Amino acid sequence: MNIRMLACALGAFALSQSATAAVEVSTFDDLALSPESHFFPKVSTTFTSGAATFNHGFNDWGGDCCHTDWVYSNRTDTTTEGYLNQHSAIAGGGAQGSANYAVANAGAPVATFAAPVTVLGAFFTNSTYAALSMLNGDGFAKRFGGEDGRDADWFMLTVTGLDSVGRHTGSVDFMLADYRYANGADDYIVTDWRWLDLSGLGTVSGLQFALSSSDSGPFGMNTPAYFAMDSLTVAAVPEPEQAALLLAGLALVGAVARRRMA
């Protein structure tokens, strides 16, 4: 094999390895659930879907209460208001026909990865509990917009990237509800699955999720601190050997090109 063929072979192989870096999707459909149910072990633990591992917290305060952080669910109830329907997505099921999806509640929900990844994005929507609370108000939270619809209310999810030692790589905000528009007809509460591009977070070893709301008081948010997520999509970062091979192949291609020009 002459140097030109070798360079082309090395370059093609390295590029193919880079291009086919594993893309993994946390659909939660790889986790078994009975119909109209959700994962809720009465113990603090974790579960894994795709490349991501999710934390689940439990505090035994009696009456099967209470969990924080993540559960996964396939519940489809979009009409029942209140705390007893805290594990349904207002979209009525998972994203893009998926049965299962994840629901996070307060606490400190995180997703971690066994090796560094680039996060491409995920689908997000409101839980039924939060959506109907914002739409109608309840015993703890106000109706968004107020009685005349003019209150500048909002409900926001912030996704923050974490590197291998927990430092922030960046953050992306997603408005789950926004009533700050000059034209009230533009105000909205998210009731469908919407894709959020997270590629700007760079290479991460984990993701941290936090909620904030205009409806807050001395004890924190009044808006129910829930959101739903599906199809968290990540791409593996190429191994150092692959990156070195890519550089070697490209260097050889460059050398061949210079010789031909000479």
From TrEMBL:
Pfam families: DUF4465, PEP-CTERM. Keywords: Signal. Gene3D superfamilies: Protein of unknown function DUF4465 (2.60.120.1350). InterPro entries: DUF4465 (IPR027828), Ice-binding_C (IPR013424). Residues 1-21 form the signal peptide. Residues 236-260 form the Ice-binding protein C-terminal domain. It comes from the Bacteria. NCBIfam families: PEP_CTERM. This is Ice-binding protein C-terminal domain-containing protein. It comes from Methyloversatilis universalis (strain ATCC BAA-1314 / DSM 25237 / JCM 13912 / CCUG 52030 / FAM5).
